[in-house]
Specification:
Rossmann fold, single chain, alpha+beta
């Protein structure tokens, strides 16, 4: 894996897009003090995944974005793209079929960050995986900050071991092993939590089983109560129908009796009227006889002699 091209725009002093090609052989970037040579190295470290702003000679994340100079307005974006040549098959398995791989990193002044591999969004972990074991990367012996050349020679056993493992190309596999062990530990923890959950679920299932039995018993008793209610309602309905039929028969008889009574009452009323008529006639005859009696009595009184006896 070799460097082919570095595209920089908006990163530190690079206000306009700058492209640095790395042809075969020995390449060097030369120039006077302050021309931005160290910024090229910082751009390499940054696109390779460096997260420490101090390692990039800054205090804040916005320090790596062009802040304006000589009448040029500040930019809102810093972007660095690194093109790699996959000539030895040192790329991860998912990129071994590519002859070139372009790694891109962007930082917006709003704080948003984007990582891309071959212009496709990816994770910072994927970028670290590309450079792991190749000798290149943000914290490897291939990129040494100015004034820190003695860091390798003066490194302690642990740091020197990291450099040796990186040079031997086993860092990627060691990292995979560490990640696999971490996943195994996380899986074991998850298994413990699953066992706790299963125990809790078993306890809850026992309670739910008792509740289900009670619910089933309630359902059975409710069905029996419903059948009893249906039979009771059916009995009440039959009794009410019988009472209604008896009442209807009684009403028919009473209507017939009432009709007969009405007929008899009419006869009685007719007899009463006849009696009243006869009584009226008798009263009239009596009145006539009384009047006749009175007249006769008056005639008798007139016919009696008036002389003394």
């Amino acid at each position: 894996m070799k460097l082919k091209k570095l595209d920089i725009v908006g990163f530190k002093s690079f206000c306009e897009k700058a492209t640095i090609n790395f042809p075969a052989g020995i390449c060097a970037v030369v120039g006077p003090n302050g021309c931005g040579k160290s910024n090229v190295v910082d751009a390499l470290r940054w696109v390779m995944g460096e997260q420490s702003i101090k390692q990039l000679r800054g205090k804040d994340r916005e320090d790596i974005i062009f802040s304006g100079a000589n009448g040029r307005p500040p930019l809102n974006l810093a972007e660095v793209s690194l093109t790699l040549v996959n000539d030895n098959g040192g790329m991860p398995e998912e990129y071994r079929d590519f002859s070139e791989v372009m790694v891109t990193r962007r930082l917006y002044r709003s704080g948003e960050t984007a990582y891309l591999i071959n212009k496709q969004p990816c994770r910072l972990k994927d970028i670290h995986n590309i450079f792991m074991g190749s000798g290149a990367g943000a914290r490897t012996y291939a990129v040494i900050q100015q004034g820190n050349i003695g860091a390798i020679t003066d490194a302690g056993p642990d740091e020197r071991r990291v450099f040796i493992e990186e040079a031997a190309g086993v860092t990627r596999y060691k990292m995979r092993k560490t990640e696999a062990l971490r996943k195994v530990e996380a899986t074991n923890q998850n298994l413990l939590r699953v066992k706790d959950i299963i125990t809790e679920i078993d306890r809850q299932m026992a309670g739910l089983k008792r509740q289900a039995q009670k619910a089933e018993r309630f359902k059975t008793l409710k069905a029996e109560a419903r059948q009893i209610d249906v039979r009771l309602l059916r009995y009440q309905d039959d009794d009410l129908r019988r009472q209604m039929n008896d009442t209807a028969s009684m009403l028919t008889v009473l209507r017939d009796e009432a009709l007969g009574q009405n007929t008899q009452l009419k006869k009685i009323d007719a007899a009463i009227e006849a009696i009243k008529l006869r009584r009226f006639e008798k009263d009239r005859d009596i009145a006539s006889q009384k009047s006749r009696k009175f007249e006769i009595q008056r005639k008798i009184d007139r016919m009696e002699p008036t002389w003394p006896i």
